[in-house]
Amino acid sequence: MEKRRIAILGSTGSIGTQALEVIKEHRELFEVELLVCRSSWEAMARQAREFDANAVVITDTSHYLDLRNALEDTGTKVFAGMDSVCSLVTGDNIDIVIASMVGFSGLEPTIAAIKAGKVIALANKETLVAAGRIVMDLASRMNVPILPVDSEHSAIFQCLMCARGNKVSKLHLTASGGPFRTWDRESIAKATKDIALKHPNWDMGAKITIDSATMMNKGFEVIEAKWLFDMPVDRINVVVHPESIIHSMVEFEDGAVIAQMAEPDMREPIQFALCFPERLPLSTRKLDFAKVGSLSFSEPDPERFPALGLAFKAMERGGNIPCALNAANEAAVAAYINGRISFYGISDVVGECMERTSYISDPSLEDIFATNDEAYSLSGRLIDEMERR
């Protein structure tokens, strides 16, 4: 495998740090060209030194001088702001862009990278949730591969490699069920953020961990799967699988199902995307089926986890409504983490915002950005109203 030059958008987050662990195992195969973070300048300065990054960007411009001073004795070039990110990802010195920035902010640089013909290792769910048709159409026109990093979509991608052109009947996305899988609705309603942030199987950032607790994360993955694999939503199934050993499955017309299995470790799908189509050794814990013992499955409960149903509803309406879903969820999750609304207040805000956002059946990219602003603002007002009750 020829050496690949990597840009990591969101290098200090969960995916970014694990991507760097993968790169560290195979330093001879990867060159870190660009690191991007929002505000964690100290962590990114350490990363830049360890991996001799060519350039770094901090999008929170208030920390630019801190970062520049921390790296002034190195050869690393320091930039600030989203415009710098969008410019640098197009550079000839970059082969693969790991898109792992959290939230809607990941959309703009991902589009810039696609336009420049870069391979996209996609870990940012919101990019396809908010603008799936636009992003996939652009990638098709530019002949740019979008390689999924999410464990579920990586699993489907790996299973489809076995399809050999045979028609797929259904995609099965597995869900851990999160920390509230066995709780009743009354108990969930009182759940504090500290409990919600304790995921039973995965080590993730705060936003995605709350999304897992509400199952909005799985709803986002359904939307992603539709766009990544050109699959109608009514042929995408969600099944709760608390062991998180089977990461997703593909069902064929004859009823045969192919599953991808591994210990729950995000380094495996990250490395698969970075090394595709090759597989390399990785120091993860390997499956011991005797110790696993048994695997269990159940249907998700729409009464206890209404966020999942809202994601399906958003796709049924189509247009710009999935973008409104995403924006409202970003605002509501932040409000929950800050103690402003209850756990079920998240889905209440999202549902109301979806109903009240101006509908556009065939949105342009400009419409998507406008919808994000409108829905985020509307969600803020809804959250304020909840606080006053």
Characterization of the model:
The protein is an alpha/beta fold and 389 residues long. Helices cover 48% and strands 15% of the residues. The protein contains 17 helices and 11 strands. The chain has helices spanning 14-25, 41-51, 64-70, 82-88, 107-115, 125-142, 151-160, 185-189, 193-196, 206-214, 216-229, 267-275, 289-292, 306-317, 321-337, 343-356, 365-388, and strands at residues 4-9, 30-37, 55-58, 77-80, 96-99, 119-122, 146-148, 168-175, 236-240, 246-252, 257-261. Strands 4-3-2-1-5-6-7 form a 7-stranded parallel beta sheet, with helices on both faces. A 4-stranded mixed beta sheet has the order 9-8-10-11, covered by helices on one side. It is globular, with a radius of gyration of 20 Å. 48% of the residues are buried.
| Amino-to-carboxy terminus distance | 60 Å
Order of helices and strands: EHEHEHEHEHEHEHEHHHHEEEHHHHHH
- Total of DSSP H or I helical runs spanning 4+ residues: 17
Query: Roughly what percent helix?
Result: 40-55%
Largest sheet: 7 strands, parallel
Total beta strands: 11
Q: What Rg is obtained from the alpha carbons, in whole angstroms? A: 20 Å
Low-confidence stretches: none
Query: Which structural class best describes the helix and strand composition?
Result: alpha/beta
Shape category: globular
Q: How confident overall, as mean pLDDT?
A: 94
How are the strands ordered across the major sheet? 4-3-2-1-5-6-7
Strand content: 5-15%
